[in-house]
């Protein structure tokens, strides 16, 4: 397979920056500026509710900038924090233009950070996308821009560590025009995948190129391509990585514009992409802009928009299609309205398989609004598509939604709307269920050292103040097992904040997740917490007594020797504590008399006055501060 990266730049001379301009319709072809299309023959069957559903927060202006703010996208992490990118236009084509980033990882929204484009002479530059690490506060931004040093269009990658920019650079670095980035993060391995269109051959044929970045070394792989429909341009891809590491990808071909799906269980091997499957049929559009989400079973959920009455001539509708057990179900027309319905995005609850789709709609009141439709549990049982909620409902142009669900089942929506005459980016969320906080595990062994007890403690999450948390569930797996091995071991009431997990293998290592559970049974699950190793007592304890004959046995030295327990990891051991008591006082407590370092396996209890006999026992001390059980007791003869 032809690699992208490593091509000599000799071919670049023929690929001028303006190559990218041929690919998309004009940037200023805003929804509101297009000619009206004829009415859909079908009447809408869902009602439109004038407000958001309950639980959504008041929208916040997170751009708050003098420039024209548009094309937002949101990502969300395991802690329910959001990472948003968008564009800042300081005028028309030719004027400065910045790719903006903001996050509320710290608990409050910061100020936008702007990455100004080098190349602003055409409109088809930028198109920022955002992603985030699952848990550590790192946000990722990518977009395409002119690289004047190489006279070529390249994809730029920017890393923000807890809100501060920590890396930026060109990542595509191919001789072909490289544009329209897509970011996807593996939720377990944390590998970042960056995909883009690349005109590898310089003939305006755009292949899907990609690289990935190792989270530990932060080095990028060499270039790969998705070898499907080679020689035909593939556009507007969207990719997600499921919890098993499988990549799921949608894109559209053109002429006719049709949405296809392919997946790859091992996306770091470009030869394992599956044969593409048509999802949409002919959309009768120039661009269908498919979006994809995936559940924990690996089933996929795709939305796109299509025309119903011929090529770019009829009413647009938002279409939805899913797989169940890997089998594609019939498409569903979610908008089904006389007005234009565009810009659809999707989020899925990976456990319950609830579906959330947002799009922008030209309403009968001649206003663009962001609509939300949900596929959720119905009172009579089963799931169904409900009514449509108008998330914006103002006289201004409200459009370009981006929607994500975080692992706590919080929903995050961004879109553009107006603050006076200024176009801004707004953020609203439906908070998820916060996991228990301050989770700690103490691990102890029984006296026979054949069973381990893990005592878990935690605290309520204040973000759940508006919810009724009725229970906490405890999930456990062997530490070395995959996450799919997590199983519930018990649950306690919502007012209990500790749990003792007993009878475990003494030398085993275990991993836990705790979940806050609402009265409705929904869960907010914590990250994985590892237990501690058991502290095993030293073995083979012996005692020798050396008397000082000169003093007629009046003074003696007792030397205790012992062996390290083979179940203790030497890296964990800080040393040993030596205890003694008078041999005749059977009921007395052992008292600490001394200690040794981890590599010293004997202790001399020196200069003991004669006549008194002692009993000794030794404990292992761990670097985390824990001391294990007493070893076998040795008694002076
Ligand atoms: Ca603005
Ligand atoms: Ca390039
Ligand atoms: Ca419609
Ligand atoms: Ca509006």
* CATH fold type of the largest domain: Tachylectin-2, Chain A
Distinct ligands: calcium ion
How many whole angstroms does the radius of gyration measure? 32 Å
Per CATH, the class of the largest domain reads Mainly Beta
Strand content: over 45%
The low-confidence runs, each spanning 5 or more residues with pLDDT under 50, are 1-43
Largest sheet: 5 strands, mixed
CATH architecture of the largest domain: 5 Propeller
* Spatial arrangement of strands, main beta sheet: 1-27-26-25-24
Helix-strand makeup class: mainly beta
Helical content band: under 10%
Q: Count the helices. How many?
A: 0
Mean pLDDT: 89
Distance from N terminus to C terminus (CA atoms, Å) equals 79 Å
The gross shape turns out to be elongated
